[in-house]
C-alpha cells in the first residue's frame, strides 16, 4: 500500500471514531417521575448556553411544562437541530440543548 492511502484510511477511521463518540446517546439525560408518561402529551423547549455550556441563557422551567401531572418523563438531549446550531455557533461559544417533557 502506498503511504498516501494509509493516511487516508487512518484519517477516515479517526473521523468515524470521533463521530461515534460525539453522536452517542450518553448525551441524553432521562428522568422518569411516578409511573412515567401516561397520556403521551409532549412539550419541547430549547435551552441556550454560552461559554460552551457554563452560562445558562433563558429560564426553561420544566415545572411549568409538567403542570399538574404526577407521572411524566423529562429528557434533555442534543437533537439534529441542536447539532446544526452548535456547528455554526459553537465557535462563538453559543450552544443549545432540547428539553422534552412527556406527560
> What is the total number of structural domains?
1
Order of helices and strands: HEEEHEHE
Please give the radius of gyration in angstroms. 19 Å
The fraction of residues in strands falls at: 25-35%
Description:
The protein has 103 residues and is α+β, with helices and mostly antiparallel strands. The protein is built from three helices and five strands. A five-stranded antiparallel beta sheet has the order 1-4-5-2-3. A hairpin with a 4-residue loop joins β2 (42-50) and β3 (55-57).
Key structural traits:
alpha+beta, 5 strands, five-stranded antiparallel β-sheet, 30% strand, 103 residues, 3 helices
Give the SSE map.
Elements: H1 3-22, E1 29-33, E2 42-50, E3 55-57, H2 62-66, E4 72-77, H3 80-89, E5 95-102
Antiparallel strand pairs: 1-4, 2-3, 2-5, 4-5
In short:
This protein is an alpha+beta fold and 103 residues long.
Amino acid at each position: 500500500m502506498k503511504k498516501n492511502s494509509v493516511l487516508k484510511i487512518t484519517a477516515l477511521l479517526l473521523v468515524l471514531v470521533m463521530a461515534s463518540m460525539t453522536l452517542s446517546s450518553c448525551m441524553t439525560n432521562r428522568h422518569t417521575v411516578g409511573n412515567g408518561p401516561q397520556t403521551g402529551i409532549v412539550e419541547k423547549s430549547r435551552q441556550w448556553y454560552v461559554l460552551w455550556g457554563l452560562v445558562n441563557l433563558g429560564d426553561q422551567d420544566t415545572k411549568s411544562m409538567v403542570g399538574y401531572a404526577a407521572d411524566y418523563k423529562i429528557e434533555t438531549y442534543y437533537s439534529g437541530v441542536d447539532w446544526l446550531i452548535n456547528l455554526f455557533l459553537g465557535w462563538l461559544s453559543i450552544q443549545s440543548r432540547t428539553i422534552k417533557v412527556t406527560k
